[in-house]
Recover the amino acids of this structure.
């Protein structure tokens, strides 16, 4: 079949990063998840007139791009699927980004630079491209379980918005639910099910819930918190079978325990989706191997998000994918200096009644000679804090049930600022003013590079700049900078900044159109003065 040009100019010979006068480069994005959609948005922000790039995004799911971070809220009934959309209706079309939903890329020819599609209006349609971006994401890992394990029998992997729909169908008649997997997503799913009035048991193979984000002591406190809100945790156990042929459906554990389970939600991790990359001969390890410019082993083919592997690391959270999308957009726009050097990941548990933040190095013993470790444990009140310091800088932390301290400590972690000498002050989450006295976070003295919205790497300086340009409300700031559009936990901080700025410095009378956020300084950069 003759390739369908995404834009005129097919067959023009040019290098990967050169832009010929009057010719738009055709960029095909495979994957309409959070990384692929973000890349398309980032690239268009660098070309708002659509004169340099023709962008097409192909997604298998029959939905517009949505925020996976919010899926547990959909399970819990506090959000509708529609409310998880990344952009409102018509947003992509208005920006000249072609989005094909419910369509699968079944074949790619790197030499001819074509892609074959299935599921669209024209079966077997072939698209031509100049640059190919793989953002195929990951697939849920489902352990081997004997017996009745199909979705129709009430066993559902928790990964997509359609999975939320299947869970909702079964939960209406369910009395007992078993969540397999006590990691971040599993705990969020369990909390959502509890809000629906279902009896919930979490079965987790490790001895600590969320073992990637927690140490043993913190995990013990989190286990107690989960028990107190109604969840049952069985640690160090695995589900080996499910039986739904007669009476109440049950699951069988590896120690012989039988549990009632009308609904089984599987959340045991994900695996990078690399099948398409393997078929076209890309270098694949655990993920699609990319360099600092997000290039794969084949020219003109790039990868971002959970399908990629950079410096041996496969990202499992949203923020690295969004950082990669930003860098790749710079690369394709001709920025020779653009490099992705990794992301200092911070994890927040987004579950009702549980306030948990984990960042950086946490696997450090309290007696480690190369680090200073501070710890506070209050199991009865569900509070636990562990701070890991090196050279008087915060390099890791676990913060459970200490919400007031999480914000200031996150800022110290992001800016690599020297921490207060008074370690008790530090544990309480106090900042240090220019006068040297401790006090709670002072918006005026907060350094400009302080990251306010980690999901989108938005700094205080960028929010101040947006306010000066006329973005005086949280909504306007979100449109200009994307702050608050990720997990939403920074909304109160943005609201506070807007309120402070309203009295500190009135905005300019004329607002300009939202600009692409300026590149923030790396988190390792030293703090500068207030913006």
């Amino acid at each position: 079949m003759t390739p369908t040009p995404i834009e005129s100019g097919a067959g023009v010979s040019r290098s990967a990063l050169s832009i010929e006068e009057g010719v738009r480069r055709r960029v095909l994005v495979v994957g309409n998840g959070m990384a692929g959609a973000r890349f398309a948005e980032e690239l268009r922000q660098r070309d708002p007139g659509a004169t340099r790039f023709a962008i097409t995004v192909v997604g298998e799911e029959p939905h517009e791009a949505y925020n996976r971070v919010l899926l547990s809220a959909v399970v819990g009934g506090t959000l509708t699927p529609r409310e998880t959309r990344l952009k409102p209706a018509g947003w992509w079309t208005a920006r000249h980004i072609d989005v094909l939903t419910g369509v699968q890329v079944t074949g790619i020819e790197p030499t001819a630079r074509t892609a074959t599609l299935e599921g669209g209006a024209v079966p077997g349609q072939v698209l031509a491209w100049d640059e190919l971006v793989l953002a195929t994401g990951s697939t849920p890992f489902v352990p081997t379980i004997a017996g009745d394990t199909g979705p129709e029998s009430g066993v559902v992997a928790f990964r997509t918005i359609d999975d939320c729909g299947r869970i909702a169908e079964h939960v209406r008649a369910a009395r007992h639910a078993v969540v397999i997997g006590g990691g971040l997503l599993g705990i969020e799913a369990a909390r959502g099910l509890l809000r629906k009035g279902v009896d919930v048991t979490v079965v987790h193979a490790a001895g600590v819930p969320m073992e990637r984000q927690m140490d043993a002591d913190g995990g013990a406190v989190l286990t107690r918190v989960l028990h107190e809100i109604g969840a049952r945790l069985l640690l160090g156990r695995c589900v080996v079978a499910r039986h739904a042929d007669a009476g109440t459906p049950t699951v069988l554990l590896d120690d012989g325990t039988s549990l009632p389970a009308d609904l089984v939600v599987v959340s045991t991790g994900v695996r990078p989706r690399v099948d398409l990359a393997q078929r076209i001969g890309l270098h694949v390890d655990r993920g699609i191997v990319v360099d600092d410019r997000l290039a794969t082993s084949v020219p003109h083919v790039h990868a971002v998000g959970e399908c990629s592997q950079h410096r041996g690391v496969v990202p499992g959270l949203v923020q690295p994918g969004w950082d990669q999308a930003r860098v790749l957009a710079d690369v394709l726009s001709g920025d020779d200096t653009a490099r992705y050097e990794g992301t200092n990941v911070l994890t927040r548990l987004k579950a009702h009644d549980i306030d948990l933040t984990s960042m950086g190095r946490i696997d450090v013993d309290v007696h480690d000679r190369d680090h200073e470790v501070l710890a506070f444990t209050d199991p009865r009140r569900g509070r636990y804090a562990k701070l890991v310091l090196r050279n008087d800088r915060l390099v890791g932390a676990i913060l459970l049930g200490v919400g007031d301290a999480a914000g200031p400590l996150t800022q110290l972690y992001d800016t690599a600022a020297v921490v207060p000498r008074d370690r008790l002050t530090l544990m309480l989450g106090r900042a240090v003013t220019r006068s040297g006295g401790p006090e709670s976070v002072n918006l005026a003295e907060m350094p400009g590079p302080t990251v306010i919205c980690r999901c989108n790497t938005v700094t205080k300086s960028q929010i101040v700049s947006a306010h000066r340009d006329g973005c005086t409300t949280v909504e306007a700031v979100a449109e200009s900078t994307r702050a608050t559009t990720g997990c939403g936990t920074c909304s109160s901080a943005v609201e506070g900044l807007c309120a402070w700025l309203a009295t500190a410095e009135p905005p300019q009378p004329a607002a300009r159109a939202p600009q692409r956020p300026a590149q923030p300084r790396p988190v390792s950069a030293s703090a500068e003065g207030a913006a």
The mean pLDDT is 87. The longest helix spans residues 318-332.
